Amino acid sequence: MAGSGVARLYSRLTVAEFDLIALIRGRCAIAREDVRLGIGDDAAVLAVPSGQLLAVSTDTLVAGVHFPQSTKAYDIGWKSLAVNLSDLAAMGATPAWATLALTLPQADLRWVGDFADGFAALAREFKLALVGGDTTQGPLSITVTVHGFVPDGAALLRSGARVGDAVFVTGTLGDAAAGLRCLNKNNGEVDRLLSAPLGSRETLIERLNRPTPRVAQGLALRGRASACIDISDGFVADLSHICSASAVGAEIDIESLPSSSALLNLFDVGTRRAFQVAGGDDYELCFTAAEADASSLLGDLARGGCDATCIGRIVAEPGVRVCDGAGSPVVIPRSGWEHFV
Ligand code: ADP
Ligand code: MG
């Protein structure tokens, strides 16, 4: 899109803008029948299959807020799509298309090529087509909008949790927050982190930079989970959204929160639990389901390659209470990430 300024400057930026768009288009070329018109005109023209509804979600990543300034372009490309796919997963939607609004400090073709490769690697996994976007100059910021399909009435909502339902989480919690701590380690921590079992640090940093959107798990939960959300801001904060939307509360057993061996290797129990309840950036699914369905549901998820863990239950009293093994409440200083606080 055009910016203001003298004609000479405008044309120089315009040439770079179209080079960048051509580069992104080439790296992210994924063919789909339902894309009647993709990148190149004033709007994409797309065909929604009959009987399906469109699920649409947008997330912005700002440098220094959503990822460290030092993050590699490839990882930023991956993560900008992953966090959006995670929202479709939480709705039980099948990914189809995306648009990409890219604000860049300069027209760096190499950076954009690497970014597009990271984006395309994940897009290819889900046969998702990049169908348009916008490219502008300014402080680094990436906004992706994803579109997916869900049959009428099948979307997983935050509002369906019922008293007596069990609460579950996919995968493990706290890894991404631990990965961020590994990158920002203070002096006292350096030796311990560097002497940790081989690969633990790298595993945690990879969980921060390349989250796995639980798309297949979201699809498996359709018709079975009573409520679902993806964990982006912090487990307790996100479970609170299910509770308020469903007008219920939850009791969580802190000792049942699933931990990766990398997390167990590197951090003491107090630090680990702080990452797990409030760290955020997990992109796991938190969902509720009737107790009676739990074992078949967990079996199906495990067979699909992703374990889920029962971590508590839905109760009538509003709010999320986290308890220790003895049933005593654990105080959570800050439940999750919030902007403007
Ligand atoms: P307009 O000026 O009509 O808004 P643009 O010049 O911004 O069009 O974009 C030209 C084409 O390139 C459009 O199809 C647009 O969707 C696409 N596009 C622009 N930037 C991106 C991007 N970062 N990623 C994908 N497609 C893009
Ligand atoms: Mg435009």
Could you give the topology of this structure?
Blueprint: H1 7-27, E1 35-37, E2 45-46, E3 52-62, H2 73-91, E4 94-104, H3 109-125, E5 129-137, E6 141-151, E7 166-170, H4 175-183, H5 187-194, H6 200-209, H7 215-221, E8 227-230, H8 235-246, E9 249-253, H9 261-266, H10 269-278, E10 285-289, H11 294-303, E11 308-315, E12 319-323
Parallel strand pairs: 4-5, 9-12
Antiparallel strand pairs: 1-2, 3-6, 4-6, 7-10, 7-11, 8-10, 9-11
| Integer-rounded radius of gyration | 21 Å
Question: What is the terminal separation in angstroms?
Answer: 33 Å
Q: Kindly estimate the percentage of residues that lie in beta strands according to DSSP.
A: 15-25%
CATH class label of the largest domain:
Alpha Beta
Rough shape? Answer: globular
Biggest β-sheet description: 6 strands, mixed
